[in-house]
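Let us begin with a simple case.
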Amino acid sequence: MGSDFNRRDLIKRAVAVGLVAAPAAGFLSACASGGGDNESSAKGKKTKDNPFAVANGAGLDVVIFKGGYGDDYARAFEKLYEKKYKGKTSHLGTQDITGKLQPRFNTGSPPDVIDDSGAKQIKLDVLHKNGQLADLTPLLDAPYIDDPSKKVRDVLQPGTIETGSFDGKMYSLSYVYTVWGLWYSGKLFKDKGYTPPKTWSDFMALCKEIKKDGTAPFCHQGKYPYYINILVMDLIAKTGGLEYVKRIDSLDPTVWGEGAAKSSIEAVYELVDKGYLLPGTNGMTHIESQTAWNEYKAAFIPSGSWLENEQLKSTPQDFDMKFLPVPTLDGAKLPFEAIRAGAGEPFIVPEKAKNKAGGLEFLRIMLSKEASGKFAQAANSLTVLKDGVGSDVKLRPGTQSTVEVLKAAGTNTFNYNYPNTASEFDTAVQNASGELMAKRIKPAEWLKRVKAAAEKAKKG
């Protein structure tokens, strides 16, 4: 996700994707027929230190989604590229990926590297179908900068390759290792004597207590239902287990008629039915709701681990941001400590990039310890590089909290891939959840809509 999308989304990111799905598909159809020979004519010498044969002095065109992680980290990476290859980099930080890049794709002159995230992300599955993505297998097989005896694929966190793959090949590098779940203020909980809940019944009991104390128990980024689906889909996963997650990713429509989905969506609806939502939260943007949360107007909010960096300006110094795994329903197949964790924030190299070799090398530089450490310091988040943050890097409370819950989770992690492989289905689920939280539909109708969306997506 990021500022508007999941990485992570958006992050991810992935959030309001229904607003951009149709235009994205339309312009990419045009992109597929865009002409022009964009391969850079200059070639360097292929060596172990220059596996893609980047030409000395070759410039690099970089476009970064300027969301929750900002874009300062990318400027640091660009300096590393410039130092090695003596080529100038051009940099654009934007939240309008589709708007800024549509004309360039249409004329057959896309950038060399794109952080393809945000609410106006270009859908990865659509890009893949139109042949717009470079195969990143050469990156995976290239030497790891800090230890050339290893390949890049050997130093990535589990699930990184799968998250960016279509038909068995990786086409996007999901760079940020994100955790998703609930967030609360350590200061508020300490001042009020609240205990972070581990079960759903304890969670609801605490919500009742919080409301009596004059605070809204829960808020969410209502304009972008991607966020409430963090709670919805995590609860379903923990209730149904890993096989259930696989069935959802495979677009099996029968899961939506079974107990795990039914009990989970009914549990989430309780927050609405019992009046535990912050008034107005259903119409708020991510920044509006998160700022209200920072102002102690609500106790819990769902988000990914980009939240801390995104809210730096509005978070009080003593707020003590904390991460909480989604509490479990009775009979859950995964323990409370289990969390959704995985690679997000997709970086791509367009197939028609002028300096495709430089784009691949930029991604390789990103996966060095130096770059990974720079990202942690600038963006307050972890990367997909194993042990990518040294002990010399001081983390903020929220980020340190995610490190701790990752250790506690151990092997009990899960993630969904359907937002990347079935974006229309993802949009339908988000839309249904937005309607549910606004109390315009009830759980039975939510299940009906999601099942129909899965059936439609399954048919192709």
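The second case is a distinct protein. As before, the sequence precedes its structure tokens.
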Amino acid sequence: MQFDFFPSRRLTIYLAKMFIVRILAVLVMLVLVLLMLDLLSTTGKILEAEGNGQAEIWTYAILRAPQLVARFLPYSVLLATIITLVTLNQNSEVVAMKAAGMSAHQVLAPLLLTALVVSVGSFVFNERVVTRATATLKAWDANDFRAVPADSGVRSNLYLTDGDNILTAASVAGSGDQMVLSGVTWYRRAPSGAIAEQIRAPRATWAEPGWRMENAERFDVSAARAGTAETVTVAAGVSPEQIALGGVDADGLSFWELRRSIAEYDAAGRRTAELKAKWWHKLSGPLSAVLMPLLGAVAAFGLARSGQVFVRAVIGMALGFAYFVVDNAALAMGNFGGYPPFLAAWAPFLLFALIGETVLIRTEE
């Protein structure tokens, strides 16, 4: 048995069923609690839009739930790992398996296989459901939860530079000369690099060249003086084509769509480090579920009567949550160009795989 990676077929099915039931239970609990908390903070904004009611609240919940599932599935696998292994340990089932000649890796093998299946399912779910829900929800949110036509092409959170100056917009609709920016802010920098002037407007249209801001409000930073400007044209160096290229939302695109967008950015000579890091993370993110049984394995071993089970469970939980902290930090560093994109997405995975394997071998093998 020492040379077989998996235990018997019956034992493998027993452990896998126990594990998957706990994953689903923990995931449902987390998603329901977090969705209720999210609705408490968002329902008021949804109902502010004229004509919105209970149906729109349900629509928001349906669009938000896939995002929560995708984000907290690895956490669910981690917590389910610890619950499963602690239960096996307290019932002396781990002792029985090791007495039968099974190694620690063989005890974990069914859990690792189940986590791999969960990772593949998570990737497919992200590609087919989460990306579409995210794109729809962001467009709806950018439009203040008012009705968004299906073909409007609304995008959110525009940020572009024109020399040293900055143009931002809460949302972008339309294309070409018919493009309209909403929630527009223009920041003009002084030669020293500090912000010299800020102009805000609810709407801006293409003025060939530049963007015509209507009903604008001006704030002179150096004089600390506010004023109004009925119409002002800014950002002459920013074209609709640049805005169309700058409106890529990695979270709302599938793996292959994001790859095409990165190729277009490369062809235009634009910076792609952030997009490439998120592209790689579309693979490493779902695969992180495979790490959770390895990081939580410390909870499975050691005698239950020794009183160390709780301590071991806390250690396993700490290792798992440390991975998520390091993963988010590395991805942020990749977005800022501090790490190469591939390293930002995969270094935490490889690092904690080595840590988990080292802890398992040193303590149990």
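The two ends are 15 Å apart (CA to CA). The first strand starts at residue 155 and ends at 162.
Keep these points in mind for the review questions at the end of the chapter.
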